[in-house]
Amino acid sequence: MYCSRCHREYDDSTAFCPADGSRLLDERPVRDLDETPSTPAAAVIAGRYRLGAMLGQGSMARVYHAVDLVTRESVAVKVLSKHYAAKDSERIRFFREAKAILQIQHPHVVKVLDVGRWTDGRPFIVIEYLKGESLGARLRRDKRLEPEVALRLLRDAAAGLEAVHAAAIVHRDVKPDNIFLVGEPGAPSGVRLVDFGLAKLHSHHSSEAGTALGTAAYMPPEQVLSEKVDARADVYALGVVLFRALTGHLPFEGERNVDLLSHQVLLAAPPPSWFVENLDPRIDRLVQRAMRKRPDNRYPSMATMLADMRTIIDDPDKPLAEAPPTVEPDVYTPTTRLGRDAALLFCRKLGVEPPAWPDP
Question: Over 70: is that where the pLDDT of 79 sits?
Answer without folding.
Answer: yes
